[in-house]
Amino acid sequence: MKVLIVEDDLEIQGLIGYFFGKEGYIIETADDGLEGLKKLKEGKHELIILDLMLPNLDGKNFTKIVKSMEEYGNPKIIMLTAKTEIEDVLEGLELGADDYMKKPFDPRELILRAKKLLNTVETKEKQENKFLNITINEEKHKVFYDEIEIELSKKEFDLLLMLIKNKGLVISRDKILDRVWGSNYYSGDRTVDVYISKLREKLPILSEYIKTVKGVGYRLEEKK
Questions:
Q1: Mean pLDDT per 10-residue section of the chain, whose length is 224 residues
Q2: Of 121, 107, 145, residue with least CA distance to 44
Q3: How far apart, in whole angstroms, are the C-alpha atoms of residue 143 and residue 150?
Q4: What does the DSSP assignment read for 195-223?
Q5: pTM here?
Q6: Assign residue 182 a region: left if phi > 0, alpha if psi is -120 to 50, beta otherwise?
Q7: Which residues pair with 217 in a beta bridge?
Q8: Is the dihedral of CA 224, 201, 216, 155 positive or negative?
Q9: Distance separating alpha carbons of residues 51 and 152, to the nearest angstrom
């Protein structure tokens, strides 16, 4: 995993880098907030160790930018600061920081906190639903085919997710309507057929795997 250390104190920067390097993480560093944003754009980072008092762009505004723009990849952020007021702690967390440590700090505690955050990321990634070259990320509500994002409507997304989670099983049209459209939906089971066709159009590879079970519903066949 890749860690970005945004810290203008080179001694602290080096200390953090040393401990994370010993644990096998890939380390990158930046001396100020603007350089940190540039490094973040250049490559995916799972974690940022961030000083609050930075030149050019402080840690609070840095966090606000990173957490509001998808292009930065939504990394976890641990803020480091010499400030001790509870208001500073709360403001940092409200801006989107995932954890907060006060200086001076023990690098061993920092490593443990980082591992806890990154283990959460790994667990979520393992919970992604995959079928063939198709990946559904439930948390981000996105579908990818060979790492290319496929635009699906909410109903298309929910239908695909239901098929993949129940692959190998026959799912009736009534059950699909109930789960995807809700029990109060009365437009008829023809709606399901229309949306199955849309999925086959947007993800042609599914055409040979989504099987119509006459008079019942659909089954997503297991991989051949």
A1: 94 95 92 94 89 91 88 88 73 84 91 85 57 86 90 92 88 86 65 92 92 90 72
A2: 121
A3: 6
A4: HHHHHHHHSGGGGGTEEEETTTEEEEPPP
A5: 0.56
A6: left
A7: 172, 213
A8: positive
A9: 39
